[in-house]
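To close the section, here is one more complete example, presented without commentary so you can practise reading it yourself. The ligand is adenosine-5'-diphosphate.
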Amino acid sequence: MYTLGIDIGSTTSKCVILKDGEYVYAKALALGGLGTEGPEKSLQSIWNESGLNKSDIARTIVTGYGRNRFEGGDGEVSELTCHALGGRFIFEGLRTVIDIGGQDAKVITLSESGKMSNFVMNDKCAAGTGRFLDVMANILCVDINDFEELAGKSDTPASISSTCTVFAESEVISQLANGVEMPDLIAGICDSVATRVGALARRAGVRDKVCMSGGVARNGAVRKAMEKALGVEIEYDPQAQYFGAIGAALYAYRQLNR
Ligand code: ADP
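Output:
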């Protein structure tokens, strides 16, 4: 039996097909979230990749920022539930999920049995989200994929003191003008995200095992900075950006098997 999870985020749309609620059969990602062609493009690409079509899918659950506006699913579930389910699907015994997406950050804690026990989120301010990293990558003309390698060369990360993305942008430009090296700037930018999200995580109460989900989890420099900020090991899986969609497909499967 195949179930489909669709996660419509602020910047990307992700689809995952699970087979018998057991493993990821296919996945697809398209740029563009709510209000764009992203959801349709990611669906088209998962049909192409899997060789399946809509009639093969027993149930579809939609999650993410754009879930309310999407027509064609069998139900909607919150991102919190889906990231918790998706994280636990990949990491047995997981107790904390740190989800950093394009526009918000959430920390979700789970009980021993995997039920959500607490969550804290920041959806008001771009600092501590993918948006902050994207703005900085843009002004520095650095590919976000190169952050890990560049930050790894830094011995003295720059200190970014502004709490606002707009002011931090000016601060980074002036540090660049004053000769601060690129690796130190990149490391400082990642530390700044880790400091902000780390504070959220402490409010939620971090328990081992901890993982990161969302697109920013792909940024190894941020993962390392988070480990340093929290003093814990952070589990990583290359499918981290799909955890919401995996959770939605798993939710669909469990509804059918209730
Ligand atoms: P949303 O669900 O809100 O659309 P995602 O969870 O898909 O957001 O995350 C989008 C963010 O992920 C982007 O803002 C970007 O900073 C980050 N990101 C995406 N791809 C990569 C990558 N290859 N390396 C590092 N960061 C990435």
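Once you have examined the tokens, check your reading against these statements. Residues 106 and 121 are 4 Å apart (CA to CA). The helical segments are 38-50, 79-90, 130-140, 147-151, 165-177, 182-204, 220-230, 243-256.
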